[in-house]
From TrEMBL:
Highest rank taxon of the organism: Bacteria
SUPFAM superfamilies associated with the record: Type I dockerin domain
Protein name: Dockerin domain-containing protein
Biological process according to GO: polysaccharide catabolic process
């Protein structure tokens, strides 16, 4: 055990304070723990603040009560938030904090995010027209948060009319602009209700689950009623009954349209919870998944050479992007495969595993 509620904070700027209520920790790919915790002046005493910690040894503090997040705005004692998302390599984080008057504001790497047209993504602030707001609309924050290594971010939110308590529409906000709104028609479907998941990757793709449908870059790619092939015979043998999670990777798929490899959490016939995925790349050297080995694939290799984390260009499967993978690309240069043809049934995803518990939460 590393820490328990009531234990002394023994290092970092809060040395001499005591841990109180914890969040679940998250880990970076190199094993550094990050977590939030309230803290007190005495063991078991009243909470006086909250902080975002990093590194269980050094107990570094990334963000804490009293820090300034924008001009005239400091974090109040009610800081602790479960709305915490990290980018794939742990370079960026997105969260919410309480500020003056206990209003919540969205924070990227310690500073309040700006929205198009000026202002912050803060509870009850007006939504500028440039951000997609209509007359008399104000922000109400949501519970879904995502950020990638480039610092692009997305969150769920709602609309609240000024002076009113109830919300009137649900939203997905991407980089300070309303990207999707309750009532929008996307790929022939009118959005209603609440989004249940959002995912970004470092390629710039955006996916989300809304109305039991999975959308990727404005296209429906899976929905309730779709058939799934679980035994590999090419025919659908179960049907999706519920969709609740989507995770984008930085790896290409073999769909022939440049789309990324992705994973879905679903419940199928018989109430089984499963993880589904689309088709991985099978053409050697095709590192961007567009069905052709060309200069664009070299760019993917060049930009990730030396990494063991972003493996879209790991052509030989040794879990490192290196000169051997350049050789795979060079030897295959100019080859191509015919794009796959999308068909409605069975769904073009493959069953990975049946689970007894829901997908592990990324946040």
């Amino acid at each position: 055990m590393l820490f328990a509620e009531g234990d002394a904070i023994t290092d970092g700027p809060l040395t001499g304070s005591f841990y109180d209520r914890f969040s679940w920790p998250t880990l970076t790919p190199d094993g550094v723990a990050r977590w939030t915790s309230d803290y007190a002046a005495t063991s078991g005493g009243p909470v006086v603040g909250g902080a975002l910690f990093s590194d269980s040894t050094a107990q570094d503090v990334l963000l804490k009560t009293g820090d300034s997040v924008a001009a005239g705005l400091t974090i109040d004692a009610g800081f602790l938030s479960s709305n915490l998302a990290w980018s794939q390599l742990g370079s960026n984080y997105l969260t919410t904090v309480s500020v003056v008057a206990s209003e919540e504001v969205v924070i990227l790497n310690g500073q309040a995010v700006s929205v198009a047209g000026g202002g912050l993504l803060r509870e009850n602030d007006p939504i500028p027209a440039q951000a997609g707001g209509l007359a008399n609309e104000t922000w109400a924050l949501g519970s879904l948060y995502e950020v990638n290594e480039a610092g692009d971010w997305a969150s769920s939110a709602s609309v609240r009319l000024a002076g009113e308590f109830n919300t009137t529409a649900d939203l997905i906000v991407v980089n300070g602009v309303i990207r999707y709104r309750d009532g929008d028609v996307i790929d022939g479907h009118t959005l209603s209700g609440l989004p249940s998941d959002i995912s970004l990757n470092d390629r710039g793709d955006v996916a989300f689950v809304w109305d039991n449908k999975v959308f990727l870059n404005d296209k429906i790619i899976a929905q309730v009623g779709d058939s799934v092939d679980t035994n590999g015979d090419g025919a659908g043998d179960v049907v999706i009954n519920n969709l609740f999670d989507v995770d984008l990777t930085n790896l290409p798929s073999a769909e022939g349209d440049g789309s990324p490899l992705l994973y879905l959490g679903a419940r199928v016939t018989g109430s089984r919870k499963v993880i589904l995925r689309n088709t991985p790349v099978t053409l050697a050297g095709d590192y961007n998944g567009d069905g052709v080995v060309n200069a664009a694939d070299y760019t993917v290799w060049r930009d990730t050479e030396g990494t063991s984390l972003l493996l879209g260009a790991d052509g030989d499967g040794d879990n490192t992007v290196n000169t051997a993978d350049y050789g795979v690309w060079s030897a295959a240069y100019g080859t191509s495969v015919a794009p796959s043809i999308a068909i409605p049934e069975p769904l073009a995803v493959a069953l990975l595993a049946a689970l007894l518990t829901p997908l592990a939460c990324r946040r």
